[in-house]
Amino acid sequence: MKGITKRWVLNTFGVILMILCVLIIAFSFVVQNLYYNGIRQTLVVRSGELTTVFGSHTDNFSETARNYVAAFPDKEMMELVVINSSGEPTLNSTGFTPDKGQTIPDYDAALKSADNRADWHGKNSSGEKIMALTKIITDNYGNNIGAIRYVVSLEEADRKIFIAISLVCLVGIMIMFFIFVSSTYFLRSIVRPVRDISEIAKKIARGDFNARINKFYDDEIGDLCDTINYMAGELGTADKLKNDFISSVSHELRTPLTAIKGWAETMQMDGFNDKATLEKGMGIIIKETERLGGIVEEVLDFSRIQQDRMVLIMDKVDILAELDESIYMQKERASKENKHITYESPDILPVVIGDRNRLRQVFINIIDNALKYSSSDGVVNITVELVADKIIITVADNGCGIPAADLPKVKQKFYKANQTVRGSGIGLAVADEIVRLHNGELDIDSTEGVGTTVSITLPVVPERSEDENADESAV
C-alpha cells in the first residue's frame, strides 16, 4: 500500500477512527452517567419518604426502623441497612448480621451534609461494586438518633452499560468497514486512471505522441484524460512542425551556402580573371549572405519571442516613411520576377508609438510573402487608411491563396501551408508577435485560388488638446 491509498489510510481513515473513538468514549460517559444518575435519583426519592416514616416516631427509632425494613417493598432491588446513633449497622433487609467492620463513607459524609444525606459508589468489602445513600434521622432537637442506608448493586447496571457500549462499538466497526470498502472502491476509481495517466505520460515524454488515455469517467479525471490526450495531439503536431521547420531551415541554409561555396571555389580556380564573372559571383555571394543573415535573424527573433526577451525601442514613428522604404526595398525584386506592386501613399497620417526597425521588418515580411505566393504578372496592392484612432495597412495579392483548413494555423510557429515555397515558416509568427507588442492586430483573409489579404492595424498617438500643449510649453 503506497501513494494516495497510504496517505488516505494514514490521514482520512485515521482521523475518522479517532473521531469514532472519541464519540464512543463520550457515549460511554453519557450512558454511565444516565444509569448512575437514574439509580441515584431512585435512592434520593426513597430516602425522601423517611421524613414521613420517622416524623412522629423519633423516640422509638429501632422499632420504627425494623418495621420500615420489614415492610420495604423493593428488597429485591436494593438492600436496607439500619445504623444506630454510634454509626454501627444493627439491621439489614437481607436477614444476615451486618458487617460492622465495613467502612461506610456515605454515612460519614451525611453527618457533615446540610440535608443529612450523602451518596457514594465504589466497592464493598466483598469486592462488589455498589452505590449507597445514607439518610441521617434526627429527633425534634436535631440530635442524631440513627440512619437508614440504601445499597444498590451496580453489577446489573454495568452489564447494561457494557452491552450499550458494545453495540455502539459494533456500529462503529460496521461504519468503519463500510467507509473502508466504499473509500477503497472510490480510491481505486482514482488511482487506476492516475496510474494509466502516468504510464501514458511517460510514453508521451519518450516521444510517443500517438499514445492515448482511455477515458474512464466523465468527471475531473475524465477532463484530465481529455486534456492530456489533447496535449499529446498538440505535441505531435508541434513535433511534426518542428521537424518540417528543421528540414525547411536546413534547405533554406543549404541553398545559399551551396551558391556561396560554388562561386567561392570558382573564383579560387587557377587562371580565373574574368572581371564580369567575378562581379557576378561576388554579387551572388553578397546576396546569399544577406539571405543567410535574414534566416538567422528570424530564428533569433523567434527565440526571443519564445523566451519573452524581445525588447522594443519605442519612439514616435512616421508609419508612411517606414512603409515607403519597405516597398522600395521590394520593388526591384518584384520587377525581376515580373510582378507588380501598386501603392498610393496618403498625404499625411498621425504618428504611432513603436519600434521603427521592427515595424519595417513586419512590412517587409508581409510584402515578401505576397510576392512569394504570387505568380508571374501577379499584382500586390497596398493601401493605407485611417479609421477612427487606428491606422490600417492592407497588403492584398492575387496569388494562390491559402486553403481554408490551413488559414487558422498560418500564424503558428513552424507552420507552412505550402511546403514547396521557400521560407522557414516562422516569419509570420514573428510578425504577428511584433504587431501584438505594439498593441495592434494582424489579420489574414484568404481564398484558395483567388488571393490573400493581410491587414495590419496599429493604434495612433492620441491628439493632445490645446490646453495640454500650452501646459507643456510653459514647463
Protein described:
The protein is an alpha+beta fold and 475 residues long. The protein has 3 domains: 3-159, Beta-Lactamase (2-Layer Sandwich), CATH 3.30.450; 220-306, Signal transduction histidine kinase, dimerisation/phosphotransfer (DHp) domain (Helix Hairpins), CATH 1.10.287; 315-459, Histidine kinase-like ATPase, C-terminal domain (Heat Shock Protein 90). The protein contains 11 helices and 12 strands. It has helices at 3-48, 50-53, 61-71, 105-112, 155-205, 220-268, 275-306, 319-336, 356-372, 427-437, 466-474, and strands at residues 79-83, 89-92, 117-123, 129-138, 144-153, 315-317, 340-343, 352-354, 379-387, 390-397, 441-447, 451-459. The strands form 3 sheets. It has a 5-stranded antiparallel sheet with strand order 2-1-5-4-3, sandwiched between helices. Strands 7-9-10-12-11 form a 5-stranded mixed sheet. A two-stranded antiparallel ribbon has the order 6-8. Strand 9 (379-387) and strand 10 form a beta hairpin. Helix 1 (3-48) runs antiparallel to helix 5 and helix 7 crosses helix 10 (427-437). The protein is rod-shaped, with a radius of gyration of 51 Å. The chain starts with a helix and ends with a helix. Mean pLDDT is 83; it is low at 465-475.
